[in-house]
Amino acid sequence: MSKRITPLAWVKRLLWRVALLLALFWGGGIALFSFVPVPFSAVMVERQLSAWFSGDFHYVAHSDWVSMDEISPWMGLAVIAAEDQKFPEHWGFDVQAIQKALSHNERNENRIRGASTLSQQTAKNLLLWDGRSWLRKGLEAGLTVGIETVWSKKRILTVYLNIAEFGEGIFGVEAAAQRYFHKPASNLTMSEAALLAAVLPSPVRFKADAPSGYVRSRQAWILRQMRQLGGESFMTHHKLY
């Protein structure tokens, strides 16, 4: 006589199977994209589906994959200067930045500050959904460890630059360079790279082709940080280019 499976046991079994499938999917993705160009990201899919469901059939999430050799070294330096200056040294998480962000957020509940590294942003943009939740942050942490374990820092930066959102439907530095400067990403100047990096915190709100005073001031700050890091030599020294 077969043992009857209770509803709770059935749900637990289903959840374990779903978790196993997701682990295999994400693990396979991390392994595959360690050397294969990324055709699209989870955030790109999310943006496209959201546009379609809202009735906007003109929106097209667009990106053009390019290797690091086809990206100006200024661009990699700009996003490091703007988003994660300890990128070459940390193991996926900037503990000091996290502590500062937590302290700031306790004092300023209406002005939440993040502390995501480029590695965390890459994991989220590539394999997860946008938004804030403890579930997503937990999954992001696990995927970040996987990416940092399997990929080189150069690979993480390459993927990040190819899937980062720079405007409405504009994903990746090549699409951004063509859209805003009518040139390939390989020809971006120091100033242009800093301008693109300046819109990253909110690429839909901030416009690279119509920069506000805040964006211009952030661009100037990023340029100063780029010089302080050591310019192009920073990228070659850390084997990021």
Automatic annotation (TrEMBL):
Pathway in which the depicted protein is active: Cell wall biogenesis; peptidoglycan biosynthesis
The job of this chain, per UniProt, is described as: Peptidoglycan polymerase that catalyzes glycan chain elongation from lipid-linked precursors.
Keyword Transferase recorded: yes
Which keywords annotate this record? Cell inner membrane, Cell membrane, Cell shape, Cell wall biogenesis/degradation, Glycosyltransferase, Membrane, Peptidoglycan synthesis, Transferase, Transmembrane, Transmembrane helix
Please list the residue ranges annotated as the Glycosyl transferase family domain. 60-226
Q: Which family does it belong to?
A: Belongs to the glycosyltransferase 51 family.
EC code(s) of this entry: 2.4.99.28
Q: Which terms does the record give in the GO molecular function aspect?
A: glycosyltransferase activity
Instruction: Name the predominant localization.
Output: membrane
Regarding the membrane, this protein is recorded as: Single-pass membrane protein
Lineage summary: Bacteria, Pseudomonadati, Pseudomonadota, Gammaproteobacteria, Enterobacterales
Reaction catalysis annotation: [GlcNAc-(1->4)-Mur2Ac(oyl-L-Ala-gamma-D-Glu-L-Lys-D-Ala-D-Ala)](n)-di-trans,octa-cis-undecaprenyl diphosphate + beta-D-GlcNAc-(1->4)-Mur2Ac(oyl-L-Ala-gamma-D-Glu-L-Lys-D-Ala-D-Ala)-di-trans,octa-cis-undecaprenyl diphosphate = [GlcNAc-(1->4)-Mur2Ac(oyl-L-Ala-gamma-D-Glu-L-Lys-D-Ala-D-Ala)](n+1)-di-trans,octa-cis-undecaprenyl diphosphate + di-trans,octa-cis-undecaprenyl diphosphate + H(+)
The record's listing under PANTHER family reads:
BIOSYNTHETIC PEPTIDOGLYCAN TRANSGLYCOSYLASE, MONOFUNCTIONAL BIOSYNTHETIC PEPTIDOGLYCAN TRANSGLYCOSYLASE
Species name for this entry? Pseudocitrobacter cyperus
Q: Return the InterPro entries for the record.
A: Glyco_trans_51, Lysozyme-like_dom_sf, PBP_transglycosylase, Pep_trsgly
Say if the entry is tagged with keyword Transmembrane helix: yes
Protein's UniProt name? Biosynthetic peptidoglycan transglycosylase
Compartments in which it is found: Cell inner membrane
